[in-house]
From TrEMBL:
It comes from the Bacteria. The lineage of its organism: Bacteria, Bacillati, Actinomycetota, Actinomycetes, Streptosporangiales. InterPro entries: GlyceroP-diester-Pdiesterase_M. Residues 35-55 have a biased composition (Pro residues). Residues 56-66 have a biased composition (Low complexity). This is Glycerophosphoryl diester phosphodiesterase membrane domain-containing protein. Residues 243-339 form the Glycerophosphoryl diester phosphodiesterase membrane domain. The chain crosses the membrane at residues 102-125, 154-176, 197-226, 232-254, 287-311. Keywords: Membrane, Transmembrane, Transmembrane helix. Pfam families: GPDPase_memb.
Amino acid sequence: MSDGHGPTPETPPGWAVEQPPPYGAPQASPWTAPGSPPHTGPGHGPGPVPAPQGPPQQWQQPGWGHLPPPALRPGIIPLRPLGLGDILDGTIKLIRSNPKAVLGLSAVAALLAAVPVAIGNVFLLDATATAMADPTSDPDDLPGGFLAQFGGPLVSLAVGFVVVTMLTGVLTRILGRAVFGGGMTAGEAWRLTRRRVPALFAVVGLQAAILLAPLLVVGLLVWALVASGSSVSPGGAVAGFFLVMLLYVGYVLFFRTRFAFAAPAVVLEGRGPLAAMRRSWTLVSGGFWRVLGILLLTSLLVGLIASILQLPFTIVGTVLGMLGQGGVGTLVLAGVLTAVGGTLGAMITYPFEAGVAGLLYADRRMRSEAFDLVLQTAAIEQQRQGWVHSSADDLWHPSNSAGS
């Protein structure tokens, strides 16, 4: 029997024996592996459980007053409303606890999105080297033309739309199990997620339509002004452009925040596209500015880290491509370096942003629906059994919310 100061040999990783059950629940029985015979003897059967030996816990010491017991933490987060530190720490633990599944899937997605950009950069470097060697050349006749400048990024956006959508769904499924301390392979995550992929695509398509609608309206207005022959001063055009961009950025941030939890609602709650977007809108209500602030901070952090990782490869690749006088070998090497840099950067960006969004979703449910009570009750039962059953995935259904 533990003295309350450390894990026993039977305690699985991730659980601390000094954490008592929350909310005055009866003390959980010791962990046993599935199929093991029940323990016998004092404290291991029906009847009262002897009080633990050793010094009293901190929240019971004289002079400290009555302090609540520490939150149960079976997995990557404590089962209570989360602070910023809990969310960032939980995301790191998600990656570390499932490195093969999380980083492996992220690497594949990042590579698929980075290759088109690398190919486009190869054409662009070839055109730049040609222009440097012959300043009199016509830019319209340079190899690649329009594709040299815009083809790679456009194709990368299309590929990224596909792979990132699937990756977000798969990582959300892994996160849903990791909250309880359970692991999941990439194959199992994909098997549990693949039926939700069409709904995920529909969610992303609806969000893209909402975000692009103002640009379409502005484009039509500009075309109407040009067609009518109206003249606008250069100063007025510049001021109008910056005003429209400022309003559009606010518009994008508002709707991206409101729909931030649509993907988790599709994967973990089994909702359809429109229902998932309405669900996200409801969950964000009451915490909009906090959600927006954490999402922006996360984007800045991962963007900075990704840039630091990507910059050396981009610089070396660009220099080699420009100094190689358009040689095939140097251009291929430049493309490879660009792809490696982009993959490394995206491997950090994709899982971190998906993890933060998933944990923010869990936090909003705990704050607005008392979902932490559901998680704690399930965690205590899983601690008693000694393992995380796959039925834990069903707990995310909204019918299990204590506040519903």
